[in-house]
Amino acid sequence: MNYLKCNSCGHQNAVKSVYLTFCGHCAKKLTGSFVEWQQQYPGQDFETYLRMIVEKEQEEEHNEAGWITNQWKRHKGNKWLIASALVIILLITGGTLFGKRAVLTLFYSSAPQSWLYTSWETVVIGRQALEISSPLHLRINDHTLPADLAERAEYVKCYSSSDNSGFRIEVNMYSYWKHVSNSLEEAAGGVLNEIKSTSGVSALEYKSCPALQAGNPGLLMEGEYLYKDAIRLAFRNLIIVKGPHRWLVSITYREDDKIGEKVAIRVLKSIRLR
Asked: Which bin fits 53, alpha (ψ -120 to 50), beta or left (φ > 0)?
């Protein structure tokens, strides 16, 4: 996917068609749109335009990396001083696209390939038991519930992965009071609203398909989004509903993490309702 950055708000707009002209976040006119570019290069097609966007991004990243390399060459005798200065610059520029990418990449590391071959831990969650296997230890992560959920739910149990890597698993189990509606459609809408309302999330894309679990209605949601205009994250969510009970398994990882994708699929396939 190619993106066009808005010079007004910094939002990364997915370039899906020739008609992209205004920013999807602030509605201001974009610089470098296909229509504007075609006026400079008449007769050129959309595919050529997309290649130009990729080449421009690579050139900008190369220039940034080249500047750092040049500083090392010019100040060989003051490496510690330059190293300290570069760290400070990186922190100061955390608000820029380059700075954000560098910082967030540290927090969202890729899943190690060893997870595909090592033995996994299997846990049983909640009194309406769900069994799940994971390469990460899942620990109890109960927290204070929002007032509206506390009034509707009789029982809630939350587990999450204890590792601070870029691959994250969260399992939530809810038992609602009998008078409270608990449909698969409501659950899916709630999950989407939570993702959309998360600070820093934009350019959300997703798809969903039915996923029966032991004869109970379920829904598998897969997608990705841009986080803080710097890194693309992928997610796979499995929602299961059985009477007043609801289970939500959420897995998040870097969009370019192919090992993480395989691990996520294997985790979801391990789920069993007891």
From this structure: alpha
- The pLDDT tens digits for 45-98 are 777 877 776 566 655 555 555 555 555 555 555 555 566 666 555 555 555 555
Task: For residue 203, report the phi and psi dihedrals to the nearest 5 degrees.
Answer: 50, 50
Distance CA 41, CA 35 (A): 10
Query: What is the CA angle 139-158-217, rounded to 5?
Result: 125
Is the distance from CB of 132 to CB of 122 less than 8 angstroms?
Answer: yes
Cross-strand pairs, 156 = 174
Instruction: Note the Cα 253 to chain centre separation in Å.
Output: 6
State how far the Cα of 235 lies from the Cα of 74, in Å rounded to an integer: 44
Question: Are 6 and 13 a contacting pair, CB within 8 Å?
Answer: yes
Q: Write out the CATH class of domain 113-273.
A: alpha beta
Question: What kind and span of H or E run contains 219?
Answer: strand 218-227
| pLDDT value of residue 93 | 53
- Nearest Cα neighbor of 32 from 228, 41, 61, 1 is 41
Instruction: State how far the alpha carbon of 163 is from the alpha carbons of 30, 108, 159, 176, 271, in Å.
Output: 40, 11, 12, 30, 20
Q: Does position 216 have pLDDT exceeding 70, yes or no? A: yes
- The domain spans of the chain are 3-74, 79-107, 113-273
Query: pTM of whole model > 0.85?
Result: no
**Closest Cα to residue 149, out of 234, 225, 222, 248?**
248
